[in-house]
Design goal:
Shape: globular
Number of helices: 2
Distance between the termini: 17 Å
Radius of gyration: 14 Å
Length: 129
């Protein structure tokens, strides 16, 4: 069985309010990234009041974590997007599309009833190393 390696970087926010999870886990050639909110590392708070600003920050956080694991956003194979309001899909998708490039990963997008800190969007990811 492949070893489970904890991925931790100071270039992205750590677990929300000290919750018992890691930024990411690498097993073999796959990296599983915990759901990311649009939290700015320096401010320690959500960026902006819109889904586009939060998605931009999320993609930056994902990128930093993936780099720490030896991967990158161009190696994403699956993402799940959690939206508070599917009416925000187009705004989220515009930002997301700029980051995932010509060969985007498989993706699921769901509307949910709540996210921590009043966030509008959360994205979790699986990438290849």
């Amino acid at each position: 069985m492949a070893e489970k390696d904890v991925i931790r970087t100071d270039a992205a926010p750590g677990p929300f309010q000290g919750a018992p999870y890691n930024q990411a886990i690498r097993v073999g050639d796959l990296v599983f990234v915990a759901g990311q909110l649009g939290i700015n590392l320096e401010a320690g708070a959500l960026v902006g009041s819109g889904v586009a600003e939060q998605t931009e920050q999320i993609m930056g956080n994902l990128s930093a974590i993936l780099k720490a694991a030896g991967s990158d956003v161009d190696k994403l194979v699956k993402t799940t997007v959690f939206l508070m309001d599917l009416g925000d899909f187009a705004a989220m998708n515009e930002v997301y599309a700029r980051h995932v490039g010509e060969r985007p990963p498989a993706r699921s997008t769901v509307q949910i009833s709540g996210l921590p800190s009043g966030a509008l969007v959360e994205i979790e990811a699986i990438a290849h190393v």
